[in-house]
Amino acid sequence: MTIKITHFETHDIRFPTSLTGDGTDAMNTDCDYSSAYVTIYTDSGLIGHGMTFTIGRGTDIVCHAIRELAGRLVGRDPESFFENMGKAWDWMCSDSQLRWIGPEKGVIHLATAAVNNALWDMFARARGKPLWKLIVDMTPEELVNATAFRYITDVLTREEALEMLESKEAGKREREALVTKVGYPAYITSAGWLGYSDEKVSRLTKEALASGFNHFKMKVGADFKDDLRRGKMIRSIIDDPANYPSGFKDPSSPELAGKNAGPTGAVLMIDANQVWDVPQAIEYVTGLAEIKPWFIEEPTAPDDALGHAAIRRALKPYGIGVATGEHAHNRMVFKQLFQAEAIDVCQIDSCRLAGVSEVLSVLLMAAKFGVPVCPHAGGVGLCEYVIHLSVIDYVAISGTMERNVLEFADHLHEHFPYRCTMNERGRYNVPSNPKEGYSIEMYKESIAEFEWPNGSYWVGASGGKKLST
To answer: Who's near 381: CB < 8 A, 6+ residues apart?
Structure first.
């Protein structure tokens, strides 16, 4: 029986995380983690949820763009999209008047991510599988057809992608079984926010060690002396064998090679959130070499591929890599980062890129160029999203998770019925509920409480902000 998309709902949901310093860094000092959220309905009861991440003001603008894009789906048969999700993605980006206000970047691209992700969520729910399982069960031809290729065929053709995927068919089920058993490797960010006190950073770092983490990230860029001091403090904790009563990893193991791991196998990363010009970045990070970071994340403007390449060349003698991608507008920016040999680590974002179909194109390019993918997940709903993407990358595309680590931040998961979970090894558990789709469904009670400006929390705050009780 043919079904039709009948209507949709959008919600501007904002959480007052600025009150506790969650998410603070040198560039973003006042973050209220927010979600521009959409639910798409059909006449059969099948639904799809999607969202894009924002940090407060402007979420309403993204919601308006979502309404413009989602309105184009009404009256359509979702199965006609599911047959070829790459073609569906091209169609979603094809409205010439909406495309003009991008193209394929900024607010309209964020909104496209929410709508495309909602359609993928609906697809996975229709097939009774978590999103990652839906995609890894595709044939190589089906996965190629689900991918966005426009503007990247000078570095990756559909034929090359098909050959890459076919080469990974052998061993795919074994990889699926392994990651389901042991979980996907992770690193923790929520111990190192810039707005936290030394006491809180120290406590959270020790708690993370006890939870099995051995990769840690701290924010930098506001004050050099303070960053150096905080980096030494974190290093003193994660490099101390006394904090590992059950033993620690061999720093010379292949998974830690080139990561500047300390004597306990612990790895430290630093993140400047785009705060520097290129010469500043080089000078600042070389000054932090003694805390032995694996990489500097977002050292400069996110779409400056040649600037990142210059920073990478300058830092290479110090053994410090470069990572970026959280704010890369689209697949073309990643293409140029790969072409310029500008990054050591690719950091896709599940809703800065315009949904799953564009993410697949970047995962394929990263595999071709041999760059490990360590997705960004420091925001509401992002951890729930990206565990699916990392499992897809490991099982179906790159075939490796040895050097990959997926970001984890311990904030706001309680608002999602299919929230992400971690195991005792500090790894993500693989989503397994056949009803969860892309895992981004939010509790109705959370929407009612935190929707801006009329949710019960914000009404109770009388226009200001207060801590939840």
So the answer is: 35, 51, 53, 412, 416, 440, 442
State whether the Cα torsion 361-364-369-375 is positive or negative: positive
Distance of alpha carbon 268 from alpha carbon 113, whole angstroms: 31
Q: Which two tokens stand for residue 309?
A: 């390449």
Nearest to 345 by CA among 364, 329, 377, 369: 369
Q: Between the CA of residue 415 and those of 33, 63, 114, 182, what are the distances in Å?
A: 13, 19, 18, 26
Look at strands 427-428 and 406-408 and give their pairing. Answer: unpaired
- Angle between helix 278-287 and 305-315 (nearest 10): 30
* DSSP string for 69-101: HHTTTTT--HHHHHT-HHHHHHHHT--HHHHHT
Give the distance, in angstroms, between the CA of residue 97 and the centroid of all CA atoms in the same chain: 29
**Which residues are part of the catalytic machinery?**
219, 376
CB 270 within 8 A of CB 296: yes
Which pair of tokens denotes residue 118?
Answer: 């909602």
CA distance 38 to 40: 7
Tens digits of residue pLDDT in 123-153? 999 999 999 999 999 999 999 999 999 999 9
Alpha-carbon dihedral angle through residues 305, 307, 308, 312, given to the nearest 10 degrees: 140
- What is the number of alpha carbons within 13 Å of residue 281 lying toward its C-beta? 30
**Would you tell me how many other CB atoms lie within 10 Å of the CB of residue 410?**
16
- pLDDT tens column, 169-211: 999 999 999 999 999 999 998 887 788 899 999 999 999 999 9
Q: Do residues 324 and 350 touch, judged by C-beta distance below 8 A?
A: no
Transcribe 400-425 into DSSP letters: --SS--EEE--SSGGG-TT---B-TT
The SS3 call for residue 258 is coil
- List residues bridging with 71 in a β-sheet: none
User: Sign of dihedral through CA atoms 117, 299, 344, 30?
Assistant: negative
Amino acid residing at 215: H
Residue 410, token pair as written in the block: 């311990």
